[in-house]
Amino acid sequence: MKLVTSGRTAPLTRIILGVAATLMMLAFAANPTLAQKRGGGGPTRSRLLLVFAPDESNKSLTDQYSRLQRDSGAIDSEDVDVIYVIGDHMVKLPPPDMKTVSGDEMRKHYHVDATGFRVVLVGGDGWEKARWSEPTDAKKILSRAADMPKPKSALDDEKH
Fold first, then answer.
1. Beta partners for 118?
2. What is the spatial distance between Cα 142 and Cα 75, in angstroms, rounded to a whole number?
């Protein structure tokens, strides 16, 4: 069976397709959950606390680790993931990235020299929010994190 169209139906088809595409975009905009299920809207990221140290025996690193361990519950409740970047060891990033990068690559990205100790707070948007060059109490770090918007996943948990 052959479909025969006149010259008038081609513009009409384009109009109908345009209206259908517009309605689909409006449906996704009105329902962000649907857009995320379909892969739109992007994954949510937690906030990161990056602790850079030149080696495992670094005094500042052990001090920072102890401070963070004391307040680990508060750090978890604020949806902050702590990542230790030690020397040039490989680092596994949390979701949604889930990739492994070298410590050297992380140091270059965050401008930390190979012998330096730094604590860097990174927001869910991927931008650096604060930086410290000495071991810092979790309460001080979390006071800065509290100024940052929480990831959408954390806000959804608070509603339920």
1. 52
2. 7
Cis peptide bond N-terminal to 96, omega within 30: yes
pLDDT per residue rounded down to tens, the chain (160 residues): 444 545 555 555 555 545 444 444 444 444 433 333 333 445 556 789 999 999 999 999 999 999 999 999 999 988 899 999 999 899 998 887 789 999 999 999 999 999 999 999 998 888 899 999 999 999 999 988 766 555 544 445 555 5
- Residue 58 main-chain phi, psi, to 5 deg: -65, 125
* Residue whose tokens read 């902050």: 80
Please state, in angstroms and rounded to a whole number, the distance separating the CA atoms of residues 142 and 41. 27
* Pair of tokens at residue 101: 């990068």
Q: How far apart are CA 153 and CA 160, in angstroms?
A: 11
Structure tokens at 21: 């595409």
Residues 117, 63, 98, 104, Cα dihedral to 10°: 20
Residue 83 has phi, psi (to 5 degrees) of: -125, 130
pTM for this prediction: 0.66
Q: What is the C-alpha separation between 123 and 129, in angstroms, rounded?
A: 6
